[in-house]
Amino acid sequence: MNSFWTATTPNRSGILAVAAAAMACASLGAAPAHAGNSTWTAWQAPAGMQEAKINAIDAAASDVAVATDGYGVLTGASGGATTFKSRADADVSATTSVNDVAHSGTSLLAARGGKGGLWKLSQAGSDWLFQSPEASKGELGAANIDSIWVDGTRTVVGIVGKGVRVGVNGVFKDYSAGLKSNTVFSVHGAPGASVLFAGTDGGLARSTDGGATWSFSPQGVVDGNGTKVQILKVYVEPTNPSRVWAASSSDGIYRSGDGGLTFHRANGYGDTEIGDYHVRSFMVHPALPRAMFAGTEKGVWVSPNLGLAWYQLTKTGLPNDVVRALGMSAADPLHVYAGTNAGLATLTLEPVALIDTPKVTGPTGPGGTAQVGDVLTVNPKAHFKGTSPILTVASWKRCKKDKPEECETQKTGNTTTVTAADTGHTLHAWVKGTNMTPEPLEADSARIKVPVPGAPVFFSKPTIPTYATVGQALFSLPGGVSGQGVSFAYQWQVCTKIGLLAQISCFNISGATSSTYTPTTNAKGAMIRLKVTASNNLGDDVAYSNYSKPVV
Prior knowledge:
mainly beta; Methylamine Dehydrogenase, Chain H; Immunoglobulin-like; 3 domains; 5-stranded antiparallel beta sheet; 4-stranded antiparallel beta sheet; 1 helix; 46 strands
């Protein structure tokens, strides 16, 4: 039906192996904990329409249009609308069934149910106009149109029992030649191109000449018994027309990567399989082309990776489990609209947020340092929140001690084992969380030192007095250090807060290199900090004291 619908899942041959490998390599994990405020909000519709069966949704930058079964067309403001108004007149009334609705420029097109034909309404207007130009000989007036696809001045409609009609500037022609089935449930195409697809009760049809001729059932669109399947939805990605999706009534979802020449099943794998639920609608995320949504008899499912894995969205607040229509606007990628058998609901997608700094467990050395053989572990799922599912990936980076900005990724996964090559450097975990919102989030754990055996290691930091006064000496304690034959070097620093974020910037105080320091008037108003370097013949370690209060 609508211009933003599509779905995903992997097939039973090579795709399953690819799915398993891709998920293993990425170390993906769904994180239902910390799911955020994942609750659907039921719409506010005119009296008596709250539990209307929803047939189609078209979400645009201007508004969200909804086609209902027996209550006409309703629209609501974009941006997560929950209040909708009826757009009824005498022709497309509040008791009319509408199969599909689509935006066409500044107008709306509606496919009236039964044999009601195609109707047009300006967004500012109140009268629906019948679309039956002379060239169509009034045929659309008796047509049970089930699907509308708008591409600029071209409008393609799929008609139950009559095939496909293509209209240019309002003039429609019969483009059903070659269709083996004239019961067409869905039409879609490549924007600005001549490639069209029609989902029918006898399979999927493809045209390369704008609908003048059709070839039927591209390779792969069959069920487990080799029988052509009934295709209820078809969708061509507008920014990548080589990727085509088709949803069947009995065999899940199919994906093509070659413009519809061949298809593979894309239903997920193992614990992340979408199941045998009847897929009634599907939609590609307009801001995340690899992400998609599917409306089924068991709620809404999402895939973040072209159908290699599927996860069920929350059903909390959803008016009914049977989801017949989905909508999302490219201008508003944080709201999902779901049309059910008992009304419409909106879900606000909460972006991934960090709960706290990722924590690493496993170091066994003094002062939280790591030793060769230690197994370090990070649990990235515990540190993110947002709308579930949240998928996470972790990797480990080794940074040079003398050049801490120079880091190299050593391994991907939630664990790593410290090796001799890590000695003298630092290790830390890098984690990334993504969900069905456009912006992923990355974070680093604290750096873990891997000292040379026997080299000094600070296990407690140096301390200086909290209060500092001009002319009064500050004494220090160097902190706890492991190792034999350790000597200390001192460097006092003056520190100030800068910028809107109050970041602290520190500078060495010339000549202040003993264990004590007496602030001068030049330090007034600044904070004081001490840098201590512990050294022996095997290496060294650096630690910083607390900050003093501003010098008075």
